[in-house]
Amino acid sequence: GIMFCNVAGELHCFKDDGTENWNYTIPKGYPLSMHLIKDTLFLATTEKELLALNLKDRTIKWTKELAGYAFDSIISRNGTLYIQAKDIYAIDPTTSKTIWQINSKTPEGFCRGAIALSENTLFATEQSGRLISANLNDGTFLKEFDFKETVRSPLTIASNLLILSTTAKKIYAIELDKFR
Question: What is the mean pLDDT of residues 74-97?
């Protein structure tokens, strides 16, 4: 196994026994979100950029500017990175090219909580309370609903339900089939 720990812009990698394997200083800022695919660690930073760090030699493969901050919001499926950082991006992890992008409608945008994926659909919330669904392959917008309440928690999928909570202390369960 492998475990990463971020301490004020220093990334520490630990072995299973808890001893440090190596550490690396992030060139600018510090990580807000991390995601591992094979030997590459993707880091969204406080500098509004996405880094692809080669774990074999700890060199930066590429960097990409993002529209905003990405708090715990990188996920991957079938060779594509999905990230919400004000806007929602589908990114080729090898080249850093944007495959598609969904622009936010609010200044805060899509930034808090994880994106949820189910079959061929992506679900995400803007902090303002707007929930959207989009086609995973091409980013085609499918549906939206505005809860008119602040959403900062991750989306959860259980059985055929999409579950989210708001800062108004409400929990919503939405049937996935009705929101595709």
Answer: 95
pTM here is 0.89
Three-state SS annotation for 114-179: CCEEECCEEEEECCCCEEEEEECCCCCEEEEEECCCCCCCCCEEECCEEEEECCCCCEEEEEHHHH
Q: Tell me which of 114 and 165 has the higher pLDDT.
A: 165
pLDDT digit string, tens, across residues 103-121 = 988 877 876 667 899 999 9
Q: Helix, strand or coil for residue 80?
A: strand
Contact 85, 74 (CB under 8 A): no
Q: What is the mean pLDDT of residues 57-85?
A: 92
Q: 100: exposed, middle or buried (C-beta count within 10 Å: 0-12, 13-18, 19+)?
A: middle
Contact between 85 and 73 (Cβ < 8 Å): yes
Q: Residue 86 carries which DSSP code?
A: B
DSSP bridge partners of 177 = none
C-alpha torsion 124→55→25→74, nearest 10:
0
**How many other C-beta atoms can be found within 10 angstroms of the C-beta atom of residue 48?**
17
| Residue 178 structure tokens | 């009705």
Q: Which residues pair with 98 in a beta bridge?
A: 91
